[in-house]
Amino acid sequence: MRAAKTKLGWHKTMPTPKRLILILGDQLNDDATGLSDFNAEHDTLWMAEVTEESTHIPSSKQRTTVFLSAMRHFAEQLKARGWPLIYSQLDDPNNTGTLAGELSKAIAQIRPQQLVMTAPGDWRVLQSLRSVAKQHDVPLEIRDDTHFFSTVRDFADHAKDRKQLRLEYFYRELRQKNGILMEGKKPIGGQWNFDADNRGSFGKQGPGMLPPPTRVAPDAITQDVMRLVNDKLAHHPGSIAQFGWPVTRAQALVALDEFITHRLPSFGLYQDAMWEGEVWLYHSQLSCALNLKLINPREVLAAAEAAFHKGHAPLEAVEGFVRQILGWREYVRGIYWTHMPEYAEGNAQQAHEPLPEFYWTGNTDMACLRDAITQTLQHGYAHHIQRLMVTGLYALLLGVAPKQVHQWYLGVYADAVEWVELPNTLGMSQFADGGLMASKPYVASGKYIDRMSNHCKGCRFNPAESTGETACPFTTLYWDYLGRHADMLAKNPRMLMQLKNLNRLSPEQREAITTQAQTHRAQLHAHKKAPQALRLEGL
What we know:
Elements lengths: L18 E4 L20 E6 L3 H4 L5 H20 L4 E4 L10 H12 L3 E5 L4 H13 L4 E4 L8 H8 L7 H12 L3 E2 L2 E2 L32 H13 L16 H22 L16 H6 L4 H13 L5 H25 L27 H13 L4 H15 L3 H11 L5 H12 L16 H7 L20 H12 L1 H4 L6 H8 L3 H20 L13
Helix pairs in contact: 2-7, 3-4, 5-11, 6-11, 8-10, 8-11, 10-11, 11-15, 12-13, 13-17, 14-15, 17-20
């Protein structure tokens, strides 16, 4: 028997452990499988804050703060139970800065007979921890993450022998299997998908009086983390001046209730709409809490389904929300774990442009990009259409190297964990997997943004123009993209109409567009400089 103490402290003498139970920063749920048979008399818990998780890509201050604060709050709950816990804080003098280094220290200190963990959400982390276990010759048991509705094996079985993978079919299987929005074997309302009913814009009148967003005032633990992040990671992107994410289960449950009560009824109709300066609109703001495992998707969907049955929210809104969680969330996880590590290197369209410097600052004359990037840096958040059809669309049309786009999304968004971010970015947004995940590249001109927002009204560019001084770069690059990839796109039936429109342009018009696109890229290169966010000296 030995007494030991960390900065967070232990409440009692440590027993000689049989097992070391690993808890990662996105596994903050009491019902995690790694904890299912925890025995405080014999087992020890392990958690570690390390700079590696914020510096292998330049993680924003918002993202790092939400992870560290949620971890510390969860650790306090474990301490309150008197459970043996080894916890490494980021500013501990002897912190090695890596998960591998901190785990090696813990193994050498207490010599466990076995390591146990819930399956992680990041391929890199899994390989690192496996390597440590092998190095120390300690067995590592990895258990299924039952936070999800399906296992990776379920997805692999679904994908087996299929020529194409499509969300819709996996989504239907999960609806049937879990009985969500079902009447027997048929979907409620007679159709599986109400996406066509969920594409409304606010029109010229704007969104009107919006429900207040769910924001949580930072408590003492969060304030300590904020000071630490501003000190240790001062050069990282973004700001935490307006930090307000839920970092405990109790706070996440409040956020869920507020979404169901105030925003779900209008979520469906306006889920694709954008409006200048409006960050939150009718979106749930639950992705951080879900990805940290503070709340379970089953309780989230149960609350949404109950709102429909009570007549509080229309079917179109509830189905659209269900599809995001039961559909996309499960689907992208399956794509990730059945195709890594090769998936991260995908570049089917041979895109090699550098990510524009303004992605780290928001300093651009394009109003839609300026708004989306500015709010991203301020809050660590942008809703799915801003990510897909503004920041993602521009990068796709410009031809940015997809790995750079992926690293930006993983770094700047507070809800980003690689299993969910990578397929959404490389597959859905950048079409870098060649159509494995999505049936077509999601490309559009500036007219789409004009239709779904008021950004173009205050922008110096005209979305109807593809050439000239006031031509919208989105529109120029859209036609340029179709021309550059015409041979590839001609094999996709869903792109034939857009190619027909391209072919209506005269050779002179197409040449002028090509020249304008080249000039736009040259101007970006002329202003290219090393972003401050990547200068990580002194960490």
